[in-house]
Structures are given as structure tokens and as C-alpha cells.
Please model this.
Amino acid sequence: MCLTAHWVDEDWVLRKKITNFCQVPNRKGETIGKFVYKCLQEWGIDRILTIIVDNASSNDGAIRYLKKMLKGPHAILDCKYLHLRCNAHIINLVVKDDLEEQIDSINRIRKAVRFLSLYVTHLFMATF
Model:
């Protein structure tokens, strides 16, 4: 698991830093949440607006765990926006799904192009 922190510093410059890169023993949401929370504590990070994750169901469990741990006076907007799904991952899933639906058409076009190129080559060779 790789955790990257993004923040705006006192000069209003957007910064980012990899805060942790580790192996998680399993894919259970609570385990992931504990690892993330431990990393946040090690870095002294106690105020978080959002955490961006992909659509894995275990991430829902991790976010539930983190919401419990981050509630209190340091919670930004009562953790209302803590869970944010990665748009790039969602777009990737949509494109893959659409391509799978189009694969038959793509394969038919490839076969037609192969046939035509062989046919044209055969005609060209027959004229000489």
C-alpha cells in the first residue's frame, strides 16, 4: 500500500509526499484502516479532509474505521467528505467495460482488413 499526502503549505503551494509504502497482511477493511491510521499518527497528521481510494469493497471498511478514529475536535466537516472515489479508476473501469462490449466488432474489422490486404497483395502479384 502506498500513501501519499497532498497539502497546501503556508505560501499556498501545493505539496505532496509519499508518507508510507508498506505491505498489508490482508485486504480486510479494518486492517487497511489500522495501517493508514498508524501512518497518520507517525506523521503527526490529525486533520484530514479526504482520502481518495479505488472502488475495492475493502476500502469502504477502511474508511468506516478511519471515520471512527478521526471523529472529534480535529474532524474536518465531521468527516463528511472523507471518502472520495478515484475518478481515474472509475473512468478506466468504464472504458474497459465498453471495450469488452466492442471486441466482436473490432475483431471483425481486423479480419476484414487482413482479408483485404491479402487480396490486394494477391492481385498485385498476379499482375506481374
